[in-house]
Batch of 2 targets.
Target 1
Amino acid sequence: MNLDEITHTARRDHLCASCGMTIRTGERYVRAPLPGGGLVAKKPAHGKCYTALLASANETNLAKKG
Ligand SMILES: [Zn+2]
């Protein structure tokens, strides 16, 4: 997935689904289905938080395979 396609500029404050900190108006953030948890829903997250989530999800998958 191209990160640019799911990166937006916040038009109002959002709560990061990963770290719980506020994504301030004007900040860039990602809105995407977050790995982990049951339901796959599109949620806002900081770009950094999202990439960290993806990385940890990949590690988990690798661990399951290994
Ligand atoms: Zn965050």
Target 2
Amino acid sequence: MRLALSLENLIDNLQKLPTIGPKTAQRLALYILKMPEAEARNLAAAILEARDRIKPCIECGMLCDTERCNICEDDQRDSSTICVVGETSDVMAIERTGYRGRYFVLNKDFHVMDDNALDGLNLKLFSDRLAGGAVREVVLALNPDIDGEIMSRYLAGVTNKFGVRVTRPAHGLPVGGNIEYADEITLRRALEGRREF
Ligand SMILES: [Zn+2]
């Protein structure tokens, strides 16, 4: 049996979203079709409006609807520390810890196996901020996977050239976890971040 073309099209498009497999896409498509018309139109309009209005902050790269984001605009922030993260959602997570420094958001999925891994990363913007002289510490808070590790090493190299200190969060072992089952990167970094007992 073939699905109606427009339904198939909706499912195909939903399936392009991360973590959405064919079954979930089908379920979401059918759910959307059962929504009241006004709600479905609001959803479509919200996607288009966000797509049009949201852009990377010209200073830190965080997604926002103004030229500079509210963190870059906030002069109470500590400009001597920059925390480098992969995505705007990571900024939100770090904000919840009470961090009061500034950010640099890469905004790009990078894969080390990809020859063009560095293309599209605004590294000139990053170097310019270090060249400004106010930055004393760069905290590399990229995801602790292979891609994040290699990118961190690269950014540490760039940062070192400016004589700026490079740190990263001491990724600990998960509470309730088992050392035997911790992956190598987590365990190595937990050991690196060890403190006085
Ligand atoms: Zn900003």
